[in-house]
Amino acid sequence: xLERDSSIPxxxxxxxxxxxxxxxxxxxxxYQIPTEKELASLFEVSTITVxxxxxxxxxxxxxxxxxxxxxxxxxxxxxxxxxLVSIHDKFGKEKSYPHKTLKFECLITIFCDVHTIPVIS
Length: 121
Fold this sequence. Notes:
By secondary structure, this protein is an alpha+beta fold. The chain is 34% helix and 21% strand.
């Protein structure tokens, strides 16, 4: 499965394998990937090598981690942060804020799931 004689480091080969699973849709958004220990056994490498590959994908936004739960496929596509508008920018010029509930998803290095936030009026 891994090419041990390759000039490509093992952690990068593992990253490519995991990325292919995500990009192909085989691992859908929300899917819990195998544990570091399971992947280390599958690839016959140390858990540190697997962890490095996973952390690369977490940093890229393809995966997210929940402490004590596991690592999951992210369901958020990359967003151009320059297009995001703050609530202040949207309503700051008005005297009062509309009484609504906003739903949002965000991805800024870490994963934020869908949350409901009441807007203060």
